[in-house]
């Protein structure tokens, strides 16, 4: 499927997924260069103004290349009720030590129109889904 | 740090991280090409004879490139007691539909001599740790 990832090294700031190195017990699962998968899951996500949007539900990995393709953000809902899952190109997330979570530099209103699916939905089983996510964010993401 | 990953696409079989497509609720988090991070964590790991070795505790992702670098396997112990964490190059894991988990094609006895750390240990904070893992498995791993 089409993806921006081949260019990612060039367009995104190094360490943009970095969690707060001063926070414990991050040190257990994080190094300067590597981060543990379970440290990314559940991390808070904010808009550029620091408004809390949701959390990282999980992220999708390309089984062949081992490349992280999408971060799936869980927005809204309470205990999963009414919760909605928004897959974003992985490069869309930048870690903010100020907010203590990832920042998505996209108008929250615009996010409402982005591809999304229900928590129990098998959205990525549609081979075109990832491509639609790439296309939707391709023009809206400021190069990190 | 040195890593075998740049050659991974060439040396490992496509889909080697694939979970059993017939199992539910895998369909919710897996596609032919992508797998969800939380589906990899907790997956059983066997030796080539189908002997259960442990489970995937988590995996380490390169924050800059978004590339999965190491799978951290949890071996032994009961409820975490006496458990030991063995980081393996990601390419070392091949999914077996026969065993319903990942297979590590390495002599279990040899694994005892591989780099490992305690569950609470900040092993990857040592910049040389990943390199030692790469070196140890580099000569022992059959190209997938």
TrEMBL record, chains A, B:
Pfam families, A to Z:
PRC
**Where do the PRC-barrel domain residues begin and end?**
35-110
TM segment ranges: none
Its domain of life? Bacteria
**What PANTHER family does its record include?**
BLR1072 PROTEIN (PTHR36505:SF1)
Protein name, UniProt field: PRC-barrel domain-containing protein
């Amino acid at each position: 499927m089409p993806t921006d990832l081949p260019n990612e090294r060039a367009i995104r700031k190094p360490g943009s997924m970095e969690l707060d190195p001063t926070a414990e017990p991050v040190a257990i699962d994080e190094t300067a260069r590597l981060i543990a998968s379970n440290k990314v899951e559940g991390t808070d996500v904010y808009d550029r103004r620091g408004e809390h949007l949701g959390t990282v539900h999980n992220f999708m990995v390309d089984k062949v290349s081992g490349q992280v393709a999408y971060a799936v953000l869980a927005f809204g809902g309470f205990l999963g009720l009414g919760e909605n899952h928004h897959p974003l190109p992985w490069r869309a997330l930048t870690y903010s030590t100020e907010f203590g979570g990832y920042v998505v530099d996209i108008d929250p209103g615009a996010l409402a129109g982005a591809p999304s699916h229900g928590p129990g939905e098998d959205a990525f089983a549609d081979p075109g889904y990832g491509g639609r996510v790439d296309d939707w964010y391709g023009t809206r993401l400021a190069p990190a």
